[in-house]
Known about the structure:
Layout lengths: L2 E8 L4 E3 L9 H11 L3 E5 H7 L7 E5 L10 E4 L2 H8 L3 E4 L3 H8 L4 E7 L7 E2 L8 E11 L4 E10 L3
Parallel strand pairs: 1-6, 1-7, 3-4, 3-6, 4-5
Antiparallel strand pairs: 2-8, 7-10, 9-10
Amino acid sequence: MTRFTIIVAVDAQRGIGINNALPWRLPEDMAFFKQTTTGHPVVMGRKTFESIGRALPNRRNLVITRNPEWRHDGVETVASLDAAAELVGDTEVFIIGGAQIYADALGRAGRLLVTEIARTFGCDTFFPPIDVQTWHEVARDTHHSVQNECDYAFVTYQRRSP
Length: 162
């Protein structure tokens, strides 16, 4: 069975992007993302892929798109999360964005890896609220970014048992 894990960085207002780009530069978060997702399949929407501009190395890249004609080197296209799960089979898959893909995956994920940035960046795209009835925090590792002059934390949430 495919195990979906959402990995996301959010600002203090749950912002995840502006104009289809990250509004911050947080090298520690990028290193965490790379270390965590390397060797695993990653699933993203087409707009997220286009904002990255290339397939992520050492990962199986799956792009969800409604356009069956859309193609890019180094990626596999799928029409849905179900289609992605069917392709990858019994493994952990990281959902890496954007907002609509996160919203679709939130009901299916078993774990959330959230970098919580304690600053607001004027985003135009947001992560859905994390419902404490559904999710419980199991780990928090707090840091300070000199570059962004703010605190941030790597937070792990686990889905509560029904």
